[in-house]
UniProtKB/TrEMBL annotation:
Protein name: Nucleolar protein 6
Alphabetized Pfam families for the sequence: Nrap, Nrap_D2, Nrap_D3, Nrap_D4, Nrap_D5
Predominant cellular place of this UniProt entry's protein: nucleus
GO CC annotations, alphabetized: chromosome; CURI complex; small-subunit processome; UTP-C complex
Higher taxonomy: Eukaryota, Metazoa, Ecdysozoa, Nematoda, Chromadorea
Length: 1059
């Protein structure tokens, strides 16, 4: 049937309607690829029915023998019925008795808070197997929301009321008896040959569930009490259901226990909530697709995987809220529903959690809402009017979700951003600029936290990690105001607390071979494994900070003096606050950080001071984890600034040279030293060798021993002269003319400007402020002449290897100089372009022009390039990829950032470089670097098609830029000769970056009180040689044939150290 356009579609412009259809097709393909097939769904349902039937038979066996437990114990002792020991099922055991479970190798999956034991639990009834009242297949599987990544079918097992006592909702009696019920069922299923594991409900340690699998089918068994277990009003936010006498042996006060109450209430209302959601979604297929996509978006950013994030129920409830508010309709397209979700989340003014009073209940008491707002940061009440679906949501998680939704909304209409939105994983360790590790020991909780936060600990069931996270978030948002855009905290309570047995080096090597990095509580664990006891472990927090411009300022400015705000400022910052006069003559409170503090350490010093002041943490418990040492990233700013100043001085001098036959019209800084991207800038030197100070031996020019300096790299600069018709078309004559210009230029610089300049046949060397510049004259007509000679008489112009090499040397580098000068004018205003023809853009060197502009825009670009080049060299790959290609890939990191924010620290830029290098599919698509942001969807589609056609003749890595959209001329320039080395690099490019990322992340985020030594990441582990030679930096290294010739003409004792 032909699709009829809706009224909304008819009103759309053609381009937008076309894009909307393409996005809709992408969504359909995405869902079909990840959704379970009909065969898999039927297999899961058959397995669920089989398991339900098996459990029902257990119940029947129980009912047959329930009339006399004493007779059963005598008559059926040791007798099995269908693999079930009947007396074990029917005998009533004490709540604290786990001996039978221990005999079967099952560890009780629950640790009580406050150090309580199972013997402290009081219930009017013991634990006895009783037939489940009913089984319910939850709606996710029925609606098609189950994915191949998580194919489990959810089954809710309803426990009869007679299993519980009348007041089991108090003091963890319900949770313990629920866990006992799950353990008994797990025992029987395990004996029957099923694979059974424990898991937790929504990362709640007090709500264990079972994961049962067999033959690729997986079930999650949830447990809930039957209706009538307790009235929902018993779990109002202000009520107390966890007595202080149970927790700490004191009963002076009974604070509200909203989180404990929600723990029980979420089981009570599960069936009602599932039934309501199913009814809402049954006749709205577009809403189901939208939920599927939003869940994928959340999961790729770990918003639904973290314990303080969004739950699946909250996502569905939010869409119900949008539907009720008229923001979406039943007929709305899937992409419009997703856009409405992003808009409502991302717009800071769209939802005010305190005033909107979000609820699915038709009527709710205002006083009840006030109770919710008093106890929770965010409130979204369910249909019952008593359960807060947003109870777990933290301030840090909400800020990150809102920011991601706002950024995603901007990309939603872009067909090419689909994968970036819904498929690319965005882990915590690649999402922030700065990372700080905080250790909170369990002794700190006992000594300091419990006496001061007793009510909060009871309210949160002794979950002191959430209290610490909320407190740190509040403090650091205020302390980093104006420096940090987003803050997030990753809780890691699974780290090994036994420091004596912990080997960071061995753990690093193990981690590098794993596919995932995680130190959190496992999502599943075996029946024989003990659950993680959170109270017995230290708390490891990793603070991630996304920085704002000006984050490196060493002054924190406060309010004007003698104001109420100034008093608050001084109380917050303490004794380090002082009065300062600012350039605008205002006298304000301020905090001045240490003069020796460089920019990366200022946020760390702020964090260290605030947490030690307000949370009484020791300073050694707060560690900086994302700043490279001086051995890896030495401070080179002063040296590069000196080179830039010397270039400015040379440029001004050359522009006033008027004695040459042809004037200099353009000066192009080609060298990477002027962009600050080389790991090793040339050291200061005033010594150069004149062309006459040579000795020729066997056609090899050797410098005289008495005047030979150490080898020094030069700063290459290209010069363009005025146009003239007297150059001719004889290449040898042109070369002689260039030599004459070098001689004349050096004479003028030496005589008139008192500079140190030496001419050579092919270039001139000039020393300016101890910086050696290499001057080359570019004459682009040479390329045309060489092409004519290659074509022969009457033929078409022909490209050869020689012409391309000459084009690289002359035309492309001259063009690069013009573009660098143009970007100097645009970004720094230091150079004035006088020659309009110099603005011509030709092929690959255009990228180097833009490299300079990127280095001017982003302060972390140059240090990140130095890290990347140093890393490639350490992995023995520097010969396989040229520096300009590395800079281009790094430019892509900044121009098309992974997190929608340009990296502001070298650490994060380097990590994103490694991610791009390892994750990009170089074989299937090129890397598109759109410097001018001018490509549309049709341009990108055309480039992809051209790439597919030309793939057999293109190198292993292809980069497309605005002036070379095919990636042919630019990449042939990078790889002048296609060889196996290129493909060797392509073969190892994925493994090495992943290994390095994991090593850096592990040492940065997971190893506490261990030296943050990143040197291992800059050491080759993929050794292709039998011997490695480490050369000292103060030794002079020369090629072997030079060494032989040199030693034959001088005394061997005078030769410098050679290795």
């Amino acid at each position: 049937m032909k699709h009829r356009l809706s009224a909304e579609d008819l009103e759309m412009p053609d381009a937008k309607r076309h894009t909307s259809r393409l996005l809709q097709l992408q969504i359909e393909d995405f869902i079909s690829e990840r959704q379970l097939s009909s065969h898999e769904i039927n297999e899961s349902r058959r397995f669920a029915l089989h398991l339900i039937d098996y459990i029902s038979k257990l119940s029947q066996a129980d009912n047959e023998h329930d009339h006399s437990a004493q007779e059963n114990r005598k008559r059926l002792e040791g007798v099995e019925t269908q693999g079930v020991l009947i007396y074990e099922l029917t005998e009533e055991l004490s709540v604290s008795d786990t001996s039978e479970l221990s005999k079967k190798g099952i560890e009780f999956p629950l640790h009580l808070p406050f150090g309580r034991k199972l013997s402290d639990i009081r219930s009017s009834r013991g634990c006895q197997w009783i037939s489940p009242e009913r089984f319910l297949l939850l709606s996710d599987h029925l609606l098609g929301l189950t994915t191949k990544e998580d194919p489990a079918l959810d089954v809710d097992i309803v426990i009869p009321l007679k299993y519980f006592g009348s007041r089991d909702f108090l003091n963890f009696a319900y949770q313990v008896k629920r866990a006992h019920y799950a353990c008994h069922l797990a025992s029987e299923l395990h004996k029957c040959g099923y694979i059974v594991q424990f898991s937790s409900e929504q990362r709640d340690a007090y709500r264990p569930i079972l994961v049962v699998s067999k033959h690729n089918s997986v079930l999650r068994l949830h447990f809930s009490p039957a209706d009538g277990f307790a009235k929902p009003c018993r779990f109002r936010p202000q009520n107390n259901n966890l007595r202080s006498s149970f927790c700490l042996g004191a009963s002076d006060t009974e604070p509200p226990t909203p989180y404990y109450s929600a723990n029980i209430l979420s089981d009570l209302v599960r069936r009602q909530l599932d039934r309501k959601f199913k009814k809402f979604l049954e006749e709205k297929p577009n809403f189901v697709k939208a939920i599927f996509m939003i869940r994928a978006w959340m999961q790729s950013r770990r918003f639904t995987k973290r314990p303080d994030g969004f739950s699946n129920a909250l996502i569905t409830a939010w869409l119900v809220y949008l539907y009720r508010g008229g923001l979406v309709a039943k007929s709305s397209a899937t992409i419009d529903i997703i856009a409405a979700f992003f808009k409502s989340i991302g717009n800071a003014l769209s939802v005010n959690w305190k005033e909107a009073r979000l609820s699915l209940a038709k009527q709710i008491d205002e006083s009840l809402f006030d109770q919710f707002n008093e106890q929770f940061n965010f409130v979204f009440v369910d249909y019952s009017g008593y359960l807060n679906l947003a109870r777990a949501l933290s301030v840090a998680a909400w800020d990150n979700i809102r920011d991601a939704a706002e950024r995603s909304l901007e990309k939603l209409d872009d067909f090419n951003e689909f994968d970036s939105l819904f498929t690319v994983e965005r882990p915590f360790h690649l999402s922030f600029d700065l990372y700080i590790k905080v250790l909170i020991s369990k002794n700190f909780v006992v000594e300091l936290l419990r006496p001061t936060h007793l009510k909060e600990l009871i309210s949160r069931c002794d979950d002191w990690s959430r209290i610490a996270v909320d407190r740190i978030t509040t403090l650091m948002k205020r302390a980093w105001a104006g420096r940090a855009a987003i803050i997030d905290i990753d809780v890691q309570m699974g780290c090994d607390s036994d420091k004596t047995k912990f080997d960071p080096g061995r753990q690093t090597l193990r981690l590098a071979d794993e596919d995932t990095i995680s130190s959190d509580i496992p999502e599943k664990w075996d029946l024989s494994c003990k659950p993680v006891d959170l109270a017995s472990r230290d708390l490891h927090l990793a603070l991630g900070v996304r920085l704002l411009p000006g984050w490196e300022s060493t002054v924190t400015r406060g309010p004007p003096a003698k104001t109420p705000e100034a008093v608050e400022f001084r109380a917050f910052w303490g004794e380090i606050s002082e009065l300062r006069k600012f350039p605008d003559n205002a006298i304000c409170e301020a905090v001045v950080w240490g003069a020796d503090a460089n920019s990366p350490r200022v946020p760390f010093q702020i964090c260290q001071h605030i947490l030690s002041r307000h949370m009484k943490l020791k300073r050694e418990c707060i560690e900086e984890r994302s700043v490279f040492s001086k051995d890896i990233l030495p401070p080179l700013t002063d040296r590069y600034e000196r080179i830039s100043r010397a270039f400015d001085k040379l440029s001004k001098t050359l522009r006033v040279v008027n004695e040459l036959p042809l004037l200099i019209t353009n000066i192009a800084p080609v060298s990477c030293f002027l962009r600050g991207t080389s790991p090793y800038p040339p050291p200061p030197s005033h010594c150069i060798i004149e062309g006459s100070s040579l000795k020729v031996v066997n056609q090899t020019a050797l410098p005289l021993r008495s005047s030979s300096p150490h080898f020094l790299p030069t700063v290459e600069v290209h010069l363009t002269l005025e146009q003239s018709g007297k150059w001719g078309e004889d290449l040898e004559a042109i070369a002689r003319l260039k030599t004459a210009f070098y001689n004349a230029m050096c004479k003028i610089l030496n005589d008139k400007f008192l500079m140190r300049a030496c001419p050579y046949d092919t270039h001139a060397l000039v020393v300016v402020d101890d910086v050696i510049f290499r001057l080359l004259i570019s004459y682009e007509k040479e390329v045309h002449i060489m092409r004519k000679l290659a074509a022969g008489r009457g033929g078409h112009l022909k490209d050869t290897i020689e012409t391309r090499m000459k084009e690289r040397e002359v035309v492309l580098q001259t063009s690069l100089a013009a573009h660098l000068q143009r970007f100097h004018e645009q970004f720094t205003g230091r150079v004035d372009v006088k020659n309009e023809k110099a603005k011509l853009i030709i092929f690959g060197w255009y990228a180097m022009t833009l490299m300079f502009s990127v280095s001017q825009q982003f302060a972390s670009f140059a240090p990140a390039c130095r890290l990347a080049l140093k890393w490639l060299s350490s992995q023995m790959l520097s010969d396989f990829i040229e520096d300009i290609m590395v800079e281009t890939i790094m430019a892509s990191v900044f121009l098309r950032p992974f997190t929608s924010y340009q990296p502001r620290t070298p650490f994060m830029a380097f990590a994103h470089f490694l991610r791009l290098l390892s994750s990009h599919s170089w074989l299937l698509r090129p890397l598109l670097v759109d410097f001018n942001n001018e490509w549309n969807d049709s341009d990108i589609d055309a480039m992809q098609k051209d790439f597919v056609k030309m793939r057999p003749v293109l190198p292993a890595m292809v980069i497309c830029i605005p002036e070379d959209r095919t990636g042919c001329r630019y990449n042939n320039f990078i790889f002048a000769f296609l060889s196996d080395n290129c493909f060797l690099f392509a073969a190892v490019q994925r493994r090495l970056p992943l290994h390095t990322i994991k090593n850096i992340v592990f040492r940065c985020l997971f190893v506490h009180r261990c030296k943050t030594d990143f040197n291992i990441s800059f050491t080759s582990w993929y050794l292709m040689a039998s011997i490695m030679l480490n050369i000292h930096s103060n030794w002079f290294v020369i090629p072997s044939f030079w060494h032989q010739q040199w030693c034959s003409t001088c005394d061997i004792s005078d030769v410098p150290n050679c290795r």
